[in-house]
Amino acid sequence: MMPQSSLTCCPFVMFIVFVLLLISAAGFPVSDEAYPSSAFEHWIYGKSNLKGTSWNKWYANSGAWANLTGSSCGGKQQSPININPRSSVRKTFPKFRFHNYGNIDRMILMNNGHTAMYSLQRKFPKGRIPYITGGGLNGTYEFAQFHLHWGNDSTRGSEHIIASKSYPGELHLVHFNTKYGSFADATAHSDGLAVLGIFLKIGPGENPYFRPVVDQLGDVLQNHDETILTNLVSFKDLLPKQTTSFYRYSGSLTTPFCQQIVIWTVFDTPVEVSEKQMNKFRKLENLEGEHLVNNFRPSQKMHDRTVF
Ligand SMILES: *[C@@H]1O[C@H](CO)[C@@H](O)[C@H](O)[C@H]1NC(C)=O
Ligand SMILES: *[C@@H]1O[C@H](CO)[C@@H](O)[C@H](O)[C@H]1NC(C)=O
Ligand SMILES: *[C@@H]1O[C@H](CO)[C@@H](O)[C@H](O)[C@H]1NC(C)=O
Ligand SMILES: [Zn+2]
């Protein structure tokens, strides 16, 4: 993600900024789970010893992620988890406030081989970038990207599970803590990212608010395909009706290197989409041309953590 201001200056300065970003990020490799740039993703996979790993085995072999050099995937604050409502601790948080969560134009949709990722245009006006406050978060968290996890059928798909029950899908809205200045810098801190997790459930009808999200999936069937959404995406209409009831815990990114930098909010209330809408995700392909499905990490151990 480039600083917005770099766009107005000469290519040489942009190049220097890019190199500096890579260098500054080198100490804290970030997975594409969180990072909106495909260039960065290439860099990560080039560097990591995942090279040569068959991509269709990516999730099937998620147990081996802990063995990657520099990986936190074997840590004690990993995500996702199986949330047990009975053993979570009741706590009252202030209300979430969603800012600029209205209509977002010309979002970039990318198939990165293991999810469909939606990010803002690089030239997106700074003053209109969505951000969140409240909800028990300290300070301001700015939107970076959203993406989804889904199954090969509706019996599985979500990353978080509630009392051992899976949902057919889970939407992740990824935000970074603005006090760290940039997304890359935020990833070095345990309160660096705030991810909102929204369960998708099959309803009787089409969800009109998801139309802009699913309608162009056919344009990005293959790995690294990218397109610009022609219709506006209304973030606030992707949220569940109820945003006051949620689970809160400290966890990690759910793809390598699984950095333990995420304040998780998992909303209790699911959002309904139709089976036909879910199927559009299931038609995407991974690098090997197979259906990109079951792109969820299995539940991780709780260790010494509390879910509120
Ligand atoms: C991780 O590495 C250790 C040590 O080399 C090995 O014993 C173990 O089988 C590896 N785990 C996986 C899941 O590949
Ligand atoms: C917010 O800040 C307080 C005080 O420093 C701290 O105890 C709490 O854990 C922080 N909460 C989050 C979600 O970062
Ligand atoms: C869905 O995936 C699971 C896990 O890989 C597999 O056992 C099952 O047979 C698949 N179902 C269909 C309908 O392909
Ligand atoms: Zn995710």
From TrEMBL:
Record SUPFAM superfamilies: Carbonic anhydrase
InterPro entries: CA_dom (IPR001148), CA_dom_sf (IPR036398), Carbonic_anhydrase_a-class (IPR023561), Carbonic_anhydrase_a-class_CS (IPR018338)
GO molecular function: carbonate dehydratase activity; zinc ion binding
Its EC number(s): 4.2.1.1
Record's keyword terms, sorted: Glycoprotein, Lyase, Metal-binding, Signal, Zinc
Domain (Alpha-carbonic anhydrase): residue spans on this chain: 41-308
Catalytic function, reaction form: hydrogencarbonate + H(+) = CO2 + H2O
Gene Ontology CC: one annotated term: plasma membrane
Cofactor(s) it depends on: Zn(2+)
Signal peptide: 1-27
Record-stated family: Belongs to the alpha-carbonic anhydrase family.
Function field: Reversible hydration of carbon dioxide.
PANTHER family: CARBONIC ANHYDRASE
Protein's name in the database: Carbonic anhydrase
Underlying gene: CAA6D
